[in-house]
Amino acid sequence: MSQDEKQTKTEKQKQIIDEVRRNRELREKTYRERALKLFPNVCGKCGREFSGKKFKELTVHHRDHDHDNNPADGSNWELLCIYCHDNEHSRNLDAEWYGSEAPGGGQGPASSHTPFAGLAALLKNKK
């Protein structure tokens, strides 16, 4: 490849990346800014308050997981810290993986061994 071809390729890549970033920022500004005006700056799950530098850790979670469903009243949003937001999405992934039944749900005990089953009889004999 010649030097000119490399420059045009990197320029095109930069343009595409810039456009993607602009579109993402515009989408985030629309519903994020509205959600931050509607709700207090508190995580809806753990209750942590956010201000200052930590404010960026507060995210908007779409309850139905549809990022295009942004009603004006905010009924599809809740503010979650990044940790609770990750937890919320991983719970849904776990539910998809295991199906409708929760992991370990509906099963009997993992072990049938009862180490102290005969202890009372041994202690009676000792007296």
Could you describe the 3D structure shown?
With 127 residues, the protein is mainly α. It has a single domain (3-103), classed as His-Me finger endonuclease fold, CATH 3.40.1800. It is built from three helices and two strands; from the N terminus they run αββαα. It has a two-stranded antiparallel ribbon. The protein is elongated, with a radius of gyration of 27 Å. The model has no long low-confidence stretch (mean pLDDT 83).
Provide the descriptors you would attach to this structure in a database record:
mainly alpha; 48% helix; two-stranded antiparallel ribbon; His-Me finger endonuclease fold; elongated; 127 residues; single chain
Short précis:
This protein has 127 residues and is mainly α.
Secondary-structure element sequence? HEEHH
Helix content: 40-55%
CATH T-level topology: His-Me finger endonuclease fold
Quantity of strands, as a count:
2
**Oligomerization category of the chains in this entry:** single chain
Q: What structural class do you assign from the helix and strand content? A: mainly alpha
Number of domains: 1
CATH class category label? Alpha Beta
Low-confidence stretches are none
User: Largest beta sheet: what is the strand line-up?
Assistant: 1-2
Distance between the termini: 93 Å
H/I helix tally: 3
Strand content: 5-15%
What sort of overall outline do the alpha carbons produce when their principal axes are compared? elongated
Per CATH, which architecture? 3-Layer(aba) Sandwich
**What gyration radius follows from the Cα positions, in whole Å?**
27 Å
Mean pLDDT, to the nearest integer, reads 83
* Main sheet properties: 2 strands, antiparallel
